[in-house]
Design a protein that fits this description.
The chain has helices spanning 3-26, 29-33, 51-55, 58-65, and strands at 36-44, 47-50, 68-81, 84-98, 104-120, 123-140. By secondary structure, it is an alpha+beta fold. It has one domain (3-140): Nuclear Transport Factor 2, Chain: A (Roll). A six-stranded mixed β-sheet has the order 2-1-6-5-4-3.
């Protein structure tokens, strides 16, 4: 693979990771699941989810638990081999909620995803994603209001 093809593939893989993050924040289970192969696997500390039907439940679950979320993709480092790739994807997630007294808090996680991608018919999708929590923290927010 030449440098230009490798760069374009890396951008395509990052776009999958960014759509995944956007879908969570929008609460869009269909878009979230569409980033995976039909038989894709998503493993988190809560256990594995297999197939798009199970994977599609993740955004709605977070919407039930938190007022809002914000997920960011910091970096994605792929190793590409034809129509397959593995990558470490670096990310953070912020989960906002209010305590019983009404004060807003944020549960923040620093994450790494261990990813396996497959390209089918020219489209890259996640075949297997493992969420690894590198660190976490909870803090009270400043309560910004505009």
């Amino acid at each position: 693979m030449n440098d230009q093809a490798e760069l374009l593939t890396g951008l395509a893989l990052r776009a999958v990771a960014e759509r995944y993050a956007m879908a969570i924040d929008r609460g869009d289970g269909e878009l979230f699941a569409a980033q995976f192969t039909p038989d894709g696997v998503f493993e988190s500390p809560h256990g594995p989810l297999e197939g798009r039907e199970q994977i599609a439940t993740v955004p709605a679950t977070l919407k039930r638990l938190f007022d809002r979320t914000h997920h960011g993709v910091v970096g994605l480092v792929p190793v590409i081999d034809g129509d397959t790739a593995v990558a470490e994807t670096y990310s953070y997630s912020r989960h906002y909620y209010r305590d019983a007294g009404g004060a807003e808090h944020c549960y923040e996680m620093t994450l790494r995803y261990d990813d396996r991608f497959i390209r089918t018919n020219g489209i890259w999708l996640i075949a297997h994603r493992v969420l690894v929590v590198v660190g976490d923290a909870t803090y009270q927010t400043a309560g910004w209001r505009f």
